[in-house]
Specification:
- The mean pLDDT is 93.
- The protein has 5 helices and 7 strands; from the N terminus they run βαβαβαβββαβα.
- The chain is globular.
- It has helices at residues 12-25, 42-48, 63-69, 108-113, 133-147; strands at residues 3-7, 28-32, 57-60, 75-78, 84-85, 96-99, 119-121.
Length: 152
């Protein structure tokens, strides 16, 4: 199993889509607070369908609490600021994929606290800034799962 971590997500429908994704690919979903929405938000529920009730979401009060919880795990920060492409990594069960908020990405201090080989990116055409958060999570989590023969 892999871990998907959303650092201070801001858009309820994106998180709802990621809840549904986590139910379907078996990833453990973590949310680092604060969020830009309430978990009772109708848009979150609509995007997540009924999967919110079957996905065990682990909430963390802040990044420090998350790090304590995941101590010893390999963390990959997914950022447009990385030079290493996501498909060039050999993922192992238990790896963690950390994504920043839709509006600002991951804070500079988090990116600087990780080794360069822990920073990964999805290639994009020149002049494009970013992908939708739910799409980025899908691409990376399914690549990791594929590399591990879709083991549950």
């Amino acid at each position: 199993m892999f871990h998907i971590v959303l650092h201070e997500p801001q858009i309820a429908p994106n998180t709802g889509n990621i809840i549904r994704l986590s139910a379907n690919n078996g990833c453990q979903l973590h949310i680092i607070e604060p969020t830009g929405f309430d978990f009772e938000d109708k848009k979150l529920r609509r995007a997540g369908l009924d999967y919110q009730d079957i996905v065990n979401i682990i909430h963390h009060a802040n990044y420090k609490a998350f790090l304590q919880h995941m101590q010893g795990s390999k963390i990959y920060a997914c950022t447009t600021k990385a030079t290493r492409h996501y498909h060039g990594v050999q993922y192992q069960a238990g790896d963690v994929f950390l994504f920043g908020s839709e509006t600002s990405g991951l804070p500079k201090e988090i990116l600087e606290s990780l080794a360069p080989d822990q920073l990964i990116r999805i290639p994009m055409k020149a002049g494009c800034r970013s992908l939708n958060l739910a799409n980025a999570v899908s691409i990376i989590s399914y690549e990791a799962w594929r590399q591990n023969d879709f083991a549950s």
